[in-house]
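Pilot study result, target chain (755 residues):
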Amino acid sequence: MLEVLRRVVQEVNGAADFFEALHIIVTRVKAALEIDVCSIYLKSPQSGRLVLMASEGLREESIGQVEMDPSEGLVGLVASRAEPVNLDSAQDHPRFRYFPETGEEHFLAFLGVPIIHQRSLLGVLVVQQHQARKFDDEHVSFLITLAAQLAGAIAYAEFNDEISSETPLIGHVNVEATGIAGSPGVAIGRAVVAYRLADMDSIPDREGAGVDHELEHFGQAVAETRTEIEDLKQRMGEALGPDEQVLFDAYLMLLGSDSLVHKTQTRIRNGQWAPAALRDTVRESVRVFEDMEDPYLRERAADVRDLGRRVLSHLLPADRSQDEFPDGGILVGDDLTASHLAEVPIERLGAMVSAKGTGSSHIAILARALNIPAVMGVSELPVGRLEGREILVDGYRGRLFVNPNAELRVEFERLVREERELAEDLRALAKDPAETRDGVAVPVLANSGLLADIKPSLESGAEGVGLYRTEVPFMIRDRFPGEEEQVQLYEQVLASFDPMPVTLRTLDIGGDKALPYFPVKEDNPFLGWRGIRISLDHPEIFLTQLRAMLKASRSHDNLQILFPMISALDELKGAMTLLNRAREELLDEGFRIPMPRIGVMVEVPAAVYMSEMLARRVDFLSVGTNDLVQYLLAVDRNNARVAHLYDTLHPACIHALETITDGSHRAGKPVSVCGEMAADPAAVILLLGMGIDSLSVSVSSIPRVKWVIRSFSTDRAEALLAQCRLLENADQIRSLLNNALVQAGLGGLVRAGKT
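Predicted structure:
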């Protein structure tokens, strides 16, 4: 049965269209179980009724004609209960309903199982047989397993057909798809599908024209690709500025690395022709990145694929004609990359949608820097069928609508106008200080990990850097960066913001953030060897970084150092010992190094309950809500199956933040919040009420967060926090806070996220 299941799923995934997928299911199941009838009923998104969409065994003319409410018939019973129904004589059941057009009066045995995808009922899978019998456990288990396996494939095929006007029974307007919010904003435009420069998987194995010829041909293609990327980098400078092109440097670095060029050359020397050698090298590198736990590193697989296609396009030149990119066009792709973005006119780009990727993708990072709405990870997106179709993009909630009707389009047009007006108003306020209505200053700083963020951070009114993720430069290299490399990098950040504070977080790798040249394989990486644990176990790496941070501060007095993933006092003591050692070494070498302010990142539950003890030993605490909320709720927010459970306004999360704030303040130390919660307008009210001393957010969120702070008094925020303590779930809390935002004249922030 497992082999049958595998083959059915494989065939369905390869089906040409929706109806072929349904036909494959009913025919294969009927044959595999040796039964008389197999049928699929799907729930209409418009009427909510169950429609017979495919059958092998019932009369053909009944397909598409038989439908029922979930309150009717045995199929409706399966749907309403969302559990299997197994009967030896269907006609004897009180919920039995007879449809003469099906000819099913001859079938007594009935087994129906629900088809459920992401908690939503898609339909019912039914098998029937002439003789009276109850289907055995093997049949029931097989159908349940099959329905669960096929739910995603059916959802994809259904969405694919929904965007086509030829589908008679499934609605084809306002087709909604959900992904991951990549960059905030809303947009309306025509889809432009990103062109694939070369199809890597189609390259055949064949005899080359000789090793020397193939090596020369490949070398020329690499050189041409390097020139192409340098040109793209220069072009992006017109939109982003020279400091923001570090992402393209990663591409140039890959072109000179063993992982791509040298391995391809080795394969050529072993007898492969250049395109096939490149194909195999790219596949190998992609597998390495895709097997990594860290979302950011998994995204690098897309960069390797994109770079491989670029080289291949010079090995196998392809004729390509590009239509003029429309104003407000929506760039859509299976796996969008930074170079796809560079190939379109930025001033005409309305939004971006990618079937793959997350908020840590290079393309999402650039989208946020450019304030372009983006939705990532729309797994059911049939990219090839979207060219030229009208799409509405909601970058706040990670949603898009294909083929919108007039009513929905008008609503989005209103939101786009409000967004434009809001952006203009906020731009004028960006440089103003963040103070509450009663004069309490709450500095808003920037989260960063790239030099590309410096210029937009300053322009957005950032009052410093609250979190600089030093692991990002480590991730885009093929080795640990040396001390002087790190010094130059950190000094640029410190100098750019001087005298404003810059908080450099020490290397936070391991767990879900492994380096390609320092892999960590564990059964449970989130609870394993990560963060400060790795740093303490490898003092040679840690000391190099600490020395670099301190040397970078020799001409500046704005350095703050933050230790990640602290869960015990011994870890903090160990980190401080190495920091003092690094400083003493530099003093002995003749450097004048001021002692920086030291902070601890509170992102594991243990640190919540040790907040006062930790605060007494450092200068400040910084709450990393992204990890803290995941640990408190046991939810991986990058996992689509449980992402809906991730909510920073969960009562437990609010209580934990109050515990941290109270503990830090008892010790007389300030506390900051640097996770995504700090960028949520509703959450900002609560953080003000708790007495959080500063916030650190992504560049694009700074003006909005400042607007919230300037619109509330501390008394009002404290009163709202007191009300939220009495509520029992996140939805109630968010509703209360959103109402408060509207009452304060900040309704634009609420409406933008509730399209």
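One observation from the pilot: The CA atoms of residues 115 and 148 lie 7 Å apart. A full batch analysis is planned for the follow-on phase.
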